[in-house]
Amino acid sequence: MSGRLVHVGSAVVDYVYRIDALPAAGTEKTASAYARVAGGGFNMMVAASRTGMKVVFGGQLGTGPEGDFLRAAFAAEGIETLTPPSPLMDSGNCVAMISGDAERTFVSWPGAESRLTPDMMKPVQAVPGDWVFTSGYTLSYPGSRDALADWIEALPAGIPFVFDPTPVIADIPRPILDRVLARTTWLSCNTNEAAEIAGAGDAQTVAIRLLGEHCRGAEGVVIRAGAHGCLVRMADGGTRAVPGFEVEAVDTNGAGDTHIGAFVSGLSRGMSPCEAARYANAAAALSVTRHGGSSAPTDTEIQEFLTERGEATTAPGRAEATAT
User: Fold this and answer.
1) Which of 39, 103, 287, 307 has the most CB within a 10 Å radius?
2) Residue 63 lies in domain
3) Looking at the domain assignment, is residue 26 inside a domain?
4) What is the pLDDT of residues 139-161, one digit of tens each?
5) Residue 50 sits in a domain of what CATH number?
6) Residues 60-67: what's their mean pLDDT?
7) 182 pLDDT exceeds 50?
8) 287 occurs within a structural domain
9) What mean pLDDT do residues 109-136 have?
10) Which one-letter DSSP state was computed for residue 323?
């Protein structure tokens, strides 16, 4: 049975506008659709929850309409919040513009999720069997990065810690990033983020440098490549390129979050890393065929998708060979 996912990242309210293309400077576009939805780390939590993990949130939600909206969304997905509402401010938000090619552009406004103190983190306790996750967003905020890095470093040695640096990686001070990478059990990042940490090169070369120079205590790294799938590199030297699935994408918002949530959920249930990566590729593929960032599929939907593609998952715990 899988343990809890203790998510100590951030959640915000997304204001999503669908447009045919980004407007040129000084011009205006009329959106074809609009939605107000829970976003940020919520998308990853939903993916883990819908695929079998119990999820708890140890970050900060605000006091005000945005925080209330997020708490209602958490409750609807059965996600417990461990910390009381921030007395300082409301939760932040993000304007997401989804263009006709299914790509997205963001403008964000930080709120309560950008402020963490040691006292705020006291109710967040990881216990044996738990998996802990955070993202680069919370580490990029000056008001939260130090408390969160201290908390991560103090995690008991046997608790796996998963880290996604996210597109804001350049905003994380290198000393903070190095401390978090040193405690990372699994790093999941896209090709640009991997290169930001370890320098340019092909995915396998960068993965080797990530493990050898930056995440020395990790079990492995996953480098995501969108529709092309991902590369899994293990600390023991095994490498596997896990191909993606061809689908008709309508909205790529939240695909990376879905991939990470499904990957962690798969690992927690005894899948091998490559099996969990295939499972995560399928989850992300399904998510981009639906509108909304929190469009993660259920375990049943993923298994049906894999069966249709002739790639049903093996039994949990079954070993899978990797090529080097």
Assistant:
1) 287
2) 4-21+32-308
3) no
4) 999 999 999 999 999 999 999 99
5) 3.40.1190.20
6) 97
7) yes
8) yes
9) 96
10) B
Q: From start to end of 8-160, where are the E strands? A: 11-18, 33-40, 54-57, 80-81, 93-98, 104-109, 131-135
The two tokens of residue 305 are: 């998708």
Dihedral in degrees, nearest 10, Cα atoms 10, 13, 18, 21: -50
Residue 322's pLDDT band, with cuts at 50, 70 and 90, is: very low
Tokens representing 129 are 């069997």
- Is residue 27, in this structure, part of any structural domain at all? no
Average predicted confidence (pLDDT) for the chain: 92
Q: How many residues does the chain have?
A: 324
Whole-number Å distance between alpha carbons of 105 and 37: 16
Give the C-alpha separation, 53 to 264, whole Å: 9
The total domain count for the chain is 1
Contact 12, 30 (CB under 8 A): no
β pairing state of 93-98 and 104-109: antiparallel
* CB distance 61 to 70 below 8 Å: yes
pTM to 2 decimal places: 0.91
**Nearest to residue 3, comparing CAs of 214, 179, 156, 145?**
156
